Task: inverse folding
């Protein structure tokens, strides 16, 4: 272990927690994580799935998005077969002297979308893989980190299905859970004799600070990162004078480097921290200065600063919102969306229009809400299925299709086609489940004036 590398230290700690707690009779394992811990969970799984893993277990790790309990095993099989078929992977297998993995029945079930068969075949695929690589008795860990989760409750339904499937000994399922949410609590209680929960304080904020500020005494960029951390600490302590001190140092550092993007980041970060103190005069001064700087850079051909300019617009909207300048707030959110479209940033445009959409919905402004939603949905053909699933687009799509269900509407048809491709035939049910949780959270944030910083 490299004791000077904070990431290596924490990975080694996770390995030790595993060794002390996970036993062969545990078929179901979960890591309880804070939001900032997810990258470490990913790193742990990736390391153990590589030849450099420190555990004796055989790990296979997937990011497969979760949409529905009935189709997830099919998605995992398809993901696994795609990885097996990858040209680079095939070269590695040939180099290692491996033969051909017999997967004809698996390919058939995947191609035919026989979802029930895929549920039954997944444990068999694991056993077949163990034989294929010459480790038939290895303790196997199927590690999952879905890059998109349509419904935590429905995911627990899939875990129950998995636990009910007959399996060879030595097959374990690893998932993650949120410390505050405890979404898998009931499932793990139901299978208490065969389940284990892993917890460990990874101290990620300390690790990030240690990495980011290394060399701050001589490197102006490292010192700038130190300013960012110190501003955050001051804001959390509600210490406005200390925040002003480090905010001033960040701006000074940005000016000295001559890096306009760094300077623009200093202005907007300082302004964002001041939201906690409702110092609107200073906030506006910082935001207006930053907007002028960003516009000058965009005009000079600095493409990299465009996303930051869009963020400035949403900050302006949020500040107006807190001051109850509601129409002005809506205009800033729409401006961010319109400008993102001009820049060719479709995903960012959707996010900006959603801020306007949910704010207008909260205020009961039907016409403005409809306009914001239509602006976002007109970008449908510029978005991939993955971008749809990772954005707020589905909520606006669901709402618009419901609104236009008795009308002939070409946009509604385009949206429906996209949602069928992204989520399947039951897309409206899936989005309704998501909507009940996500939109309520956003409405609460709108009421608190937090819509921009969420």
Result:
């Amino acid at each position: 272990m490299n004791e000077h590398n904070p990431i290596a230290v924490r990975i080694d700690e996770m390995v030790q927690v595993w060794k002390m707690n996970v036993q062969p009779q545990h078929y179901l394992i979960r890591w309880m994580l804070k939001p900032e811990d997810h990258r470490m969970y990913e790193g742990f799984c990736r390391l153990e799935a590589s030849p450099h893993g420190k555990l004796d277990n055989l790990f296979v790790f997937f990011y497969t998005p979760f949409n529905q309990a009935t189709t997830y095993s099919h998605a995992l099989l398809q993901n696994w077969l795609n990885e097996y078929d990858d040209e680079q992977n095939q070269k590695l297998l040939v180099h290692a002297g491996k033969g051909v993995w017999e997967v004809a029945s698996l390919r058939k079930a995947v191609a035919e979308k026989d979802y029930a068969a895929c549920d039954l075949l997944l444990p068999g695929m694991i056993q077949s893989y163990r034989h294929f690589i010459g480790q038939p008795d290895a303790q196997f860990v199927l590690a999952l980190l879905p890059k998109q989760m349509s419904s935590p409750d429905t995911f627990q339904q899939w875990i129950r299905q998995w636990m009910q499937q007959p399996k060879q000994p030595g097959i374990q399922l690893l998932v993650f859970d949120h410390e505050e949410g405890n979404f898998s609590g009931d499932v793990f209680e139901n299978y208490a004799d065969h389940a284990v929960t892993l917890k460990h304080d990874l101290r990620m904020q300390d690790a990030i600070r240690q990495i980011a500020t290394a060399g701050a005494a001589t490197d102006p960029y490292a010192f700038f990162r130190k300013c960012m951390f110190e501003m955050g600490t001051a804001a959390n302590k509600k210490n406005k004078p200390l925040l002003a001190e480090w905010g001033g140092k960040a701006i000074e550092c940005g000016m000295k480097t001559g890096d306009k993007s760094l300077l623009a980041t200093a202005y907007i970060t300082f302004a964002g921290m001041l939201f906690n103190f409702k110092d609107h005069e200073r906030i506006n001064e910082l935001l207006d200065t930053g907007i002028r700087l960003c516009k000058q850079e965009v005009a000079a051909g600095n493409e990299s600063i465009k996303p930051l300019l869009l963020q400035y617009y949403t900050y302006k909207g949020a500040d107006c919102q807190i001051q109850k300048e509601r129409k002005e707030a809506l205009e800033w959110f729409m401006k961010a969306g319109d400008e993102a479209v001009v820049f060719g940033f479709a995903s960012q445009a959707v996010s900006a229009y959603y801020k306007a959409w949910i704010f207008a919905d909260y205020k009961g402004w039907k016409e403005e809400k409809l306009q914001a939603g239509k602006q976002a949905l007109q970008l449908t053909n510029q978005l991939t299925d993955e971008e749809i699933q990772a954005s707020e687009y589905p909520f606006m799509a669901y709402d618009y299709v419901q609104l236009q269900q008795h009308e002939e509407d070409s946009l509604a048809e385009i949206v429906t086609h996209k949602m069928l491709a992204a989520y399947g035939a039951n897309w409206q049910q899936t989005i309704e489940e998501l909507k009940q949780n996500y939109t309520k959270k956003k409405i609460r944030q709108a009421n608190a004036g937090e819509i921009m910083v969420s």
In short: The radius of gyration is 25 Å. The CA atoms of residues 3 and 112 lie 51 Å apart. DSSP finds 21 helices and five strands in the chain. The beta strands are 28-33, 58-62, 140-144, 171-178, 195-198.
